[in-house]
Amino acid sequence: MVHVKKVEIFGFKSFGFRNTTVNFEPGLVSISGPNGSGKSNILDAIIFAMGENKPKVMRVDKLRSLIHDIEGSGRRGPKMARSSVHFDNTDRKIPVDSDVVEITRELDENGDNTYYLNKKKTQRSHVLDLLDMANAGLGQLNAVQQGTVTRISEFTSEEKRKTIEDLIGLSYFDEKKSESIKQLDEADRRLEIALAKMGEIKKRIDELEEERNQKLRHDILERELNRYKAISAANKMKTISLQKSEKEGKLDGLKSQITTLDGERSILRDEISVLDAEKSKLMNAANDYTKAKATLDAEISSAMEQYEIDNTAISASNKRLEQINTRLPQIKIELEEIVNARADIDSQIQKIKDSIEITNGEKNKINRDLELIDSERNKILTEQSEAAAKKSEIDDKIKILTDQSNNVKLKLSKILHEKEESELKIKSNSEKLNELEKDIVELTTLESKLSSLTNNHQDTISELKSRISKLKTKKLKIIHDMDELGFILEKSDKAANQYESKIKTVKGFMHEDYTVAKLKEDADKLGIDGLVYEMISWDKKYERSVLAVSSDWIKALVVKDFATLLGIAEVARSKKLPKLKIIPLDAIPKFKLSMPKESGIIGVLSDFVKCADTYSALKTFLFGNIILANSRESAYNLSQLGYKSVTLEGEFFEAKGGTVVIDINSKISKLTKLISMSSDIDGLIQSISLIKKYMLKKKYSLKKLDDSIQSYSERLSISEKSLTSASENHSNLKSRIVSAKNMKDTLTKRISDLNSRNNVIVSEVSTSESHLESLVDRIAIVEQNYASGEQTRIASELSKINVKKSDIEKLYTTIMNEYRDKSSQLTTMQTQDNREKSQTSRLNEEEDSLDSESKQIEIKISDLEKQKDPKREILEKLREKEQDLISTSGSSIDEVQEIDDKLKILTEKDRELTKQINNSERQSDSLTRDMRDLVENEVKLQQILSAFGFNKDMETFDVETIVHGLTSELSSLNALNAKAPETYLEVSYGYRSMSARKNSLEEERNSIVKFIEDIEKDKRQTFLDAFDKVDKEIRLIFNKMTGGNAWLELQNEDDIFNSGISYLIQFPNKPKRESTSISGGEKTLAAIVFVLALQKLKPSPFYLFDEVDAHLDAPNAERLSTILEERSKESQFIMVSLKDSVIQKAKLIYGVFPKNGVSNVVTYKDKRMPSVKTT
After folding, report:
1. Which pLDDT belongs to residue 100?
2. How many Å apart are CA 1144 and CA 1076, to the nearest integer?
3. Can you tell me the distance from the alpha carbon of 991 to that of 987, in angstroms, rounded to the nearest whole number?
4. Cα separation of 459 and 452, whole Å?
5. According to DSSP H, which parts of 6-109 are helical?
6. Per-residue pLDDT for 84 more than 90?
7. Using one digit for the tens of pLDDT, what is the confidence trace for 762-781?
8. Consecutive H or E run containing 835
């Protein structure tokens, strides 16, 4: 069981800046001490650590006042208040995988708070959540402070109710309701939008219907117009036949003219052909000249090309020669620079060589000094060897011991290293185990949440399906009611519309209703009790039977006596009212029908009609002689026996008659009553308006139902998807938990093995350290037993020689470093000198190469100049040959010119003839096209005629006027919507869909309303359950403490949450009174009983009571301690009290006393004998 195991206090209120530890045990724990000693501060420290943030609860004005200030002036370091509460968590009620849960809170002087959970930083909200899960949170009435009992004793009835609500968490229902109301508002908004859209669509449907009718009218006119156009086409075909004959004559004349002109043009073209042959011969001669000229031009071009190649080669050689002449001076300058640089390098190389010679001399001198020192050192070493021979035996002993010591050290080092590795592995695996345990806790919590979530989804899906089914049933009922109302409305509308034109007929048809309405205006004056159908009623099952029998009398007037009947008849005659039926009650004879012994009889129909006792004679008069039968055959048989009978279906049989009256519509009363209740057209129209409003309301309800169904269907789909996802996650989570638990078992076994091995290693370390100490002591003893002055002297001389040798070696090292540096410089200079030599060689080679190339280019230029001269001579000869060819080529040009003049004249004539032929052909083509158009028109007209069953030989008449009239009417139908019929169907379908959507929204709204009602019911039931539990506990506890009675009463059971709770007290031998009307001590007792009863609603594992018994007398304090002792078996009670009864029954007692302004705590293990002070 979770309980407070220990509290550690530092710098908190009256506890000074040193740790004060108070250990607790399960059961009843008492804290006592003088006033002002700080005993209540222990409870304040506990609730402070648990996250209490209200200063007044801890009896200070602000949180920083909780920091101890009496010792503060002389204290060094930061001031702070700290409280740590250790909870026993062996049953894991607090969801932390640890047997002890430590919650620490620190408050610094700046007012900043820091929380720790098992010494790790955390947040206040996390601490509160953990405690709430164990029912140990601050809101569970588990900490009753000073003044709380007094405050509770003054609670109003509403505050008592509110306290119970807070304890059982009724705010959850209010939040649900608030959220649902928001959803309801949203559903109403969507429904309103849907209705508005439906109104717009309905308006659009009306417009489309008009457009559709126009389109249909247009199509009819168009077909009629086409028919008359066909008749007109027959007239046009006759005209086309005349035009065809005329154009065919013209076309034949043009074809004859084209043939004549074409013969003349053929003769002319023969002459042109002869002249073209002569011209061709002359042109062949000219072509020979052209070929010779082309050959000569090719030779000239080739010669020019060869000549230009030589010119280009000479130009390129001259350019390269210029480049060589530019580079050669540059090479000479670079060679001069290199020669100067080499002179400096040679000088530096010589200097470095001289320096190296000097360094070599110094090095050789140092080598000689080293040889002398080595000789002296060898002598000393010889002496040392002789001394060492004496020490050999002792050294052997020391060596053996040292070897053993080294082995032990090595072994110890290995063991220590293994120990470190083992501890690291234990730490690492422990951390992994802790993380894994946390993960398992988190995964288990998550699994629980997922399991709960899955169940919630399943419940939600079932609930949604149930609601959708109910909403659909409700929707069908509304649709059925609307159909019936539509039928009534249709009939009523027809009656109202026809009223004006057929009022006489209607009055004749409704003579009784008209008369009744007029007389009922003065019902009281005339002594009319009412109409028959107003005074009787029946179950729906018998409606057809009753209406079938009483259809003639259902609207009759009912009066008390015959005299009244005569008076009413006189008034009707004076007002010239139509005939009417009146039933005087005193004139109805009393009789009782003798029932036949036939099968199928249900009873006398009057027994199934209800009315007031005053009018019982009325139902006897109307139905007392009618037998109700269960079938048509039974009713018929009864009629043959001389009884009037009627079936449940409304089939009425007269006595020994064959007439059957069947009530076709079981609801004739709806139409009949509607008309009969309207004394004139205004009343009828008003009734129609009421029905329309009612139908509109039904439509609105239907729309809400549709919207609700759709919303629930969407929510159902979402819930089903969420259920699938949650189920998958739950399955995955289970496998992860199993894996984590297996891993936890593996790690636990691994840590156990490592701990066992670590214990063995610790034992080995201890043994090895002890052995090593023993060896070190033995080596020291052996060394002390050997002491030699000679050995010391030799060692001193050897040390001096070694120092001297070391100094010389250092000097040698310095000389050698200097030698290496100089050698390196020499190598660098020699490398640079070689590089300069190489550069000089390269430049010389380049200079020789350029000289050689320059000479070769000069020779090449000379050779090219020699080759160029013969080519120039060849080119000049070719130019002369070209001039000779040109001079001999002009002999046949004149002849060609003469032929060209003749051809020009003939060609002009040919062109004129061709022009005439073309004109004739164009005219022919035009006539041909006209003929083709006429033929095409004739074909089209023939098709039009064929379509309407006519031919071109039909007798025709003038239809142009008719066509014109139809065309005008067709034109008046402008701006037609060609797609109006299709669009009308589509929009109508959309309207039906929108109507379905509206119905779904209405269903959704109704489901939300139902959900809100369910929340209210659940909230009420939850409260009533808690109320009953608290009431039961109050009765029990108060009776135990006083022998009297106490109980709770709801002030208004119909409105629980806007009324209060009365707490009634009845002490023995006293009258009952309200808890607020009793004395101070009695109020305290009643308040304590109320607190103890409230704590039973959500029992906490521990309670903190701060002097709640202060105002109780000894007997009541004794009784309270007895009750607390009993309850401490289930929960821990830590109680600050000065009452002996509590101290006597406490399992553990603490005393608190002040010293120098600081609280000190003393433990009484056996309740009376003080033990060690825990400060």
Report:
1. 93
2. 32
3. 6
4. 10
5. 39-49
6. yes
7. 877 778 777 777 777 777 77
8. helix 789-887
Q: Which residue has the tokens 């929380």?
A: 115
Residue 544, both tokens: 């057809």
CB atoms within 10 A of CB 140: 20
Per-residue pLDDT for 473 more than 90? no
Terminal-to-terminal C-alpha distance of the chain: 27
pLDDT at residue 852, as a whole number: 83
Give me the mean pLDDT over the 312-320 stretch.
75
Q: How many other C-beta atoms lie within 10 A of the C-beta of residue 932?
A: 10
The tens digit of pLDDT for each residue in 637-682 reads 888 888 889 998 888 888 765 545 544 343 334 434 433 444 445 5
Q: State the pLDDT at residue 457.
A: 78
Q: Is the pLDDT of residue 510 over 60?
A: no
Look up residue 119 and give its two tokens.
């010494």
Residues in the chain: 1175
Q: Name the β-bridge partners of 583.
A: 558
Q: Which residue has the tokens 């955390």?
A: 122
Instruction: Say whether pLDDT at 485 is over 80.
Output: no
- Quote the CA–CA distance of 622 and 605 in Å, as a whole number: 9
List phi, psi (to 5°) of 168.
-95, 0
376, 803 Cβ separation under 8 angstroms: no
Among candidates 384, 412, 1039, which has minimal Cα distance to 776?
412
Torsion 1114-1120-1126-1127 (CA) sign: negative
pTM: 0.39
Give how far Cα 965 sits from Cα of 180, 220, 1080, Å.
68, 14, 110
Do the beta carbons of residue 941 and residue 240 sit within 8 Å? yes
Are 723 and 1012 within 8 A, CB to CB? no
Q: Which of 516, 669, 682 is nearest to 583 (CA)?
A: 516
pLDDT tens digits along 342-356: 777 778 888 888 888
> How much is the average pLDDT of 1125-1150?
89
Backbone Cα Rg of the chain: 65
Close Cβ partners of 355 (under 8 Å, ≥ 6 residues apart): 822
DSSP string, 343-356: HHHHHHHHHHHHHH
Of the candidates 1084, 981, 897, the one whose C-alpha atom is nearest the C-alpha of residue 213 is: 981
Amino acid at 549: V
Q: What is the mean pLDDT of residues 961-988?
A: 76
Residue 141, sorted as left (phi over 0), alpha (psi -120 to 50) or beta, turns out to be left
Task: Show the tokens assigned to 527.
Answer: 């002594």
Interval 31-56 mean pLDDT: 91
- What is the average pLDDT across 1050-1057? 86
Range 238-241, long-range pairs (CB < 8 A, 24+ positions) = 238/952, 238/956, 240/934, 240/937, 240/938, 240/941, 241/938
Contact 546, 535 (CB under 8 A): no
Residue 1153 phi, psi (nearest 5): -140, 150
- Distance (Å, rounded) from C-alpha 1107 to C-alpha 149? 9
The residue type at 325: N
Give the residue from 87, 2, 106, 108 showing the smallest Cα distance to 49.
106
How many H-runs (helices) and E-runs (strands) does the chain carry?
22, 26
Both structure tokens of 1041: 């403490």
pLDDT band per the 50, 70, 90 thresholds, residue 42:
very high
pLDDT in tens, 200-249: 888 888 888 777 777 777 777 777 777 777 777 777 777 777 887 887 78
SS3 content of the chain, % helix, strand, coil (to 5): 70, 10, 20
Q: Are the C-beta atoms of residues 639 and 653 closer than 8 Å to each other?
A: yes
**CA angle centred on 710, ends 705 and 712, rounded to 5°:** 90
Question: In the prediction, which pLDDT does 261 show?
Answer: 80
**288, 310, 627, 870 from 296: Cα distances, Å:** 13, 22, 145, 18
CA atoms of 84 and 118, how far apart (whole Å): 10
> By the 8 A CB rule, do 1154 and 1146 touch?
no
